[in-house]
Amino acid sequence: MSDAETYAERLFAASMSTYETFGVYAGLRLGWFAALADESLTSTELAERTSTQERYCREFCEFMASLGTLTVTTGSPTSRRFALPPGPAEVLLDEQSLNYLGPLGRMAVAAGRRIDDLLDAYRTGGGVSWADLGNDARESQAALNRPWFTRRLGPALADVPDLHAELGRAGARIADVGCGGGWSALALARAYPDATVIGLDVDEPSISAARSAAEAEGLADRVSFVLANGATLTELGPFDAAFAFECLHDMPRPVEVLTAIRDAVRPGGPVVIMDEAVDDEFRAPAGEIDQCMYAFSLFICLPDGLSSSPSAGTGTVMRPSTLADYARHAGFSAVTVLPISDFGFFRFYRLS
């Protein structure tokens, strides 16, 4: 097989995966998958259950069955019964599962909606902000990270004894910088019941969603969320510890943010950055994590970071050496990798 034929096969498979992603997005937004997880339905029953049109339901069900996502009984086109089996149902619908990837397509759709703006940015500079990408982007990121924070963050930190002891101090004040939808802050509060947690973010809809989540989780007495500006962190300090979960690479001026964190945390207090577990150096072909992060970077994170000027233009693929350089310029003397493994695509760094 020629190189052209090999790449043609790969590109065809990638294109088909794109349409599968769009199908998943439609199936989730229209309630088709949720209905088919409850019981097997004909396309007519699915249309009635979800207030959608039968002919489109039939095409969706046959498409997903052709991919093996749905099971199907034999029969005429309108008598076939379709169902979503437990495995795909967990991945698509179970918001607490570590296998939950249902919202992944929302990020791709968010970028797709702004493709003309992205192309303009690639030509002339500037970017496309998180606010421009809208609810599909912000809500999908929060939803994808939620099970990892809810189920794994507390135990992961407990496995680092000195960090665990500092976070568990009575009356500890913990800052969650770039908190997004708030699930990391809520996880910190559950893990350390003697602490108060303050989440900060520049995105107003995310702060609103975080406040609602705190109320729903019964943690609003110990977790608060603040719409941040450049001076907010210093004004709210001092803190006993600070975290920045998967957000530093999005920030246009990461050194300024790290400097503000250093100034706001008491001397010796832990500063922890969780970011993507990319390779130490660029290589091509790259591993799956780097490939995935380059995809997010080109269409989501780098345009967001470059939407504000001046900008470091970090992008999602923030190598450990890049973070170490930012930390050094912010006044930190050391960056160490914490012994936390098996935490999705992420790596934890402690700055001191």
In total, the number of domains comes to 2
Major sheet: 7 strands, mixed
CATH architecture of the largest domain: 3-Layer(aba) Sandwich
Which structural class matches the secondary elements? alpha/beta
Number of helices: 16
* Strand order of the biggest β-sheet: 5-4-3-6-7-9-8
Annotation, overall tally of beta strands: 9
Q: What level of helicity do the residues show?
A: 40-55%
- For the record, what is the CATH homologous superfamily label of the largest domain? Vaccinia Virus protein VP39
What is the gyration radius calculated from CA atoms?
Answer: 22 Å
The helix/strand order is HHHHEEHHHHHHEHEHEHEHEHHEE
CATH class annotation of the largest domain: Alpha Beta
Q: How much of the residues is beta strand, in percent?
A: 5-15%
Q: State the shape.
A: globular
EC number: 2.1.1.-
GO molecular function, one term: methyltransferase activity
Protein name: Putative methyltransferase
Enzyme class: transferase
What does this structure look like?
There is one protein chain. By secondary structure, the chain is of the alpha/beta class. It folds into 2 domains: 91 residues, Arc Repressor Mutant, subunit A; 243 residues, Vaccinia Virus protein VP39 (Rossmann fold), CATH 3.40.50. The protein has 16 helices and 9 strands. The strands form 2 sheets. It has a 7-stranded mixed β-sheet with strand order 5-4-3-6-7-9-8. Helix 1 crosses helix 6. The longest helix is centred in the N-terminal third of the chain and has 27 residues. The N and C termini lie far apart (54 Å). Its EC number is 2.1.1.-.
